[in-house]
Each structure stands twice: as structure tokens, then as C-alpha cells.
Write a structure and sequence with these properties.
Radius of gyration: 19 Å
Largest sheet: 7 strands, mixed
Structural class: alpha/beta
Order of helices and strands: HHHHEHEHEEHEHHEHHHE
Shape: globular
Distance between the termini: 42 Å
Strand content: 15-25%
Number of helices: 12
């Protein structure tokens, strides 16, 4: 066994250790449990929002991009299908998510890698953009910002996108969110806005052209069955970790809410969403 091979093994072991240290415990446990429900129930992103964030990221055809914390590949698939013919790497720490990602993407279009925001297994200055879909609030710290800057080319884009159930456009959505959000405890949440705090760090501002970020907001609707609405709740990491009795009661409460709102028979329910995007560029 030569020294080069042993060095590679050592680096991979170290990277695995770093990855394990940096994954939030709720995310690590919750997303491992519900990968199938996550892929079935999590909403895709509207074509208008996807086109908007790709335009804001200023990508040329054939650009090399990374979907960071790619999950089951909901956003990865949209990147791979882009008319820009992007070269896509998907980085995801959870093994169950990577398995589902492998099932739902074409290996000729997407390379799947194990890693985290603080340990991205890609070369320095190699990427035109890093995307984080429904994810940046899990690693909104200077260590992750520093690592993302490392892999981006000068002038490269960090592009963030989130889907949120729009409580302002449907009262039943507000009531449903009140039923399950009380179990959040202290898990990171995009809607709380804490992910913005890292951009007040002088090092983050030195690495990226902040506050010259581009933000956009989009609305769209999906048609969902009651089962999909429940699985959307179940796909949340902190919900998947509840005990069976609490989970059963929550399910009953969600289904009772839907019956009060829509009656017993309607099973094609309009689910309003809001999509927010945020793009910032590495300093040249």
C-alpha cells in the first residue's frame, strides 16, 4: 500500500470526522428517518423562481455548480434540467438522503458527494456558484461561509433559496403551522431570520460583496392531497423525531383541521407557497 493511498484514506477519514461534527443533531437524525417522505412531500420550486435565481447568479452555459446540502435532490434535479447545461455536484451529509438522491438523478448529469458546508469535498476556486436550497439556516456560521468562499471562483455566486408555506394567503395554513411549529424547540428555522446574522461578521463581508446581495420573492400554489400535506409536516426534521403518541395526535389534529376547512371529500387542496431567494457574490 503506497503512501499516496494511505494519505487519501487519512484525508477521507478526517473529512468524515469533520462532517460528523458539523451536522446539526436534529438534521442528522431527522432527515435520515424521513428521506422517502421528504422527497414525496417537499414542494418543488416554481419555474419562475428557478429562472430568477439562475439569472441572479449570472451563470454562463456549462458553468460548474454545487447544490450544497442537496437532500434528496429536489433542487438538484432542477439545476440538472436547466437549459444552461450546468455541471452539477450535489453535496449531502445524510446517507439516506444520498441514496434517494442517487435514485432520482442521472449520474451523467449529477455527481453525488458526501460532505458538509464546513467540509466541501471540492477544489478551491473551482465553482461558478454554490446553491443551498432549504438549507442555509442549518449552517449559517462563519466556518461555512469561509468554506463556501474557498470553493468559489472569484466573483462566484452563493445562491440561497427557500420555500415556505404561505400563512398569509390561507388561514388553514396558518392554523396548520401553529399546530406543528410549537414542536420546533430551538431547531434552526429560516423564517426567524437568524441566518442573516452571519453577514454582519466582518470576515463574511470581506469574503463576499455584502450588502450588495440580490433578493427576490415569488408566490406559487401546489395541488396536494391530504396525505401529501401530512407528509409535508412529517418531513420536517424535528417532527420526525417526535414519539409515536405525539406524532399520532399531531396527525389527527392536522387531518381534523383539513376536514373542518374542506369537508370530508375534497382531496385536491390548493397549498400556497412563498419562495425567497438571496444571491451574494464572492469578492474578486
Amino acid at each position: 500500500i503506497n503512501a499516496e493511498y494511505m494519505g487519501l484514506v487519512a484525508r477521507q477519514a478526517a473529512q468524515k470526522h469533520i462532517a460528523e461534527m458539523h451536522v446539526h443533531p436534529v438534521a442528522a437524525a431527522g432527515f435520515e428517518r424521513q428521506a422517502d417522505a421528504y422527497d414525496r412531500a417537499r414542494p418543488t420550486y416554481s419555474p419562475v423562481a428557478v429562472a430568477g435565481i439562475l439569472q441572479d447568479a449570472r451563470l454562463a452555459p456549462g458553468a460548474h455548480v454545487c447544490d450544497l446540502a442537496a437532500g434528496t435532490g429536489i433542487f438538484t434535479r432542477l439545476l440538472a434540467a436547466s437549459p444552461l447545461s450546468l455541471r452539477v455536484d450535489a453535496v449531502e451529509p445524510a446517507e439516506a438522503m444520498r441514496r434517494k438522491l442517487a435514485e432520482t438523478t442521472n449520474p451523467e448529469q449529477v455527481r453525488i458527494l458526501s460532505g458538509t458546508a464546513q467540509a466541501i469535498p471540492l477544489e478551491s476556486n473551482s465553482l461558478d456558484a454554490v446553491f443551498a436550497a432549504q438549507a442555509f439556516h442549518w449552517f449559517d456560521n462563519i466556518e461555512a461561509v469561509r468554506e463556501i468562499a474557498r470553493v468559489l471562483k472569484p466573483g462566484g455566486a452563493l445562491a440561497l433559496i427557500w420555500n415556505m408555506e404561505d400563512r398569509d394567503r390561507a388561514n388553514w395554513v396558518a392554523q396548520a403551522r401553529d399546530l406543528y411549529e410549537k414542536y420546533e424547540d430551538a431547531t434552526p428555522q429560516y423564517r426567524l431570520g437568524h441566518w442573516r446574522n452571519v453577514w454582519t461578521n466582518p470576515e463574511a463581508q470581506a469574503l463576499f460583496q455584502f450588502p450588495a446581495a440580490v433578493e427576490q420573492h415569488f408566490t406559487h400554489e401546489l395541488i396536494c392531497s391530504r396525505q401529501v400535506i401530512w407528509e409535508r409536516v412529517l418531513s420536517k426534521s424535528y417532527i420526525s423525531l417526535l414519539d409515536d403518541a405525539t406524532l399520532s395526535q399531531l396527525r389527527n389534529n392536522i387531518l381534523a383541521l383539513l376536514e373542518r376547512e374542506f369537508g370530508p371529500d375534497l382531496n385536491e387542496i390548493v397549498y400556497p407557497y412563498r419562495t425567497d431567494t438571496f444571491v451574494v457574490f464572492k469578492r474578486a
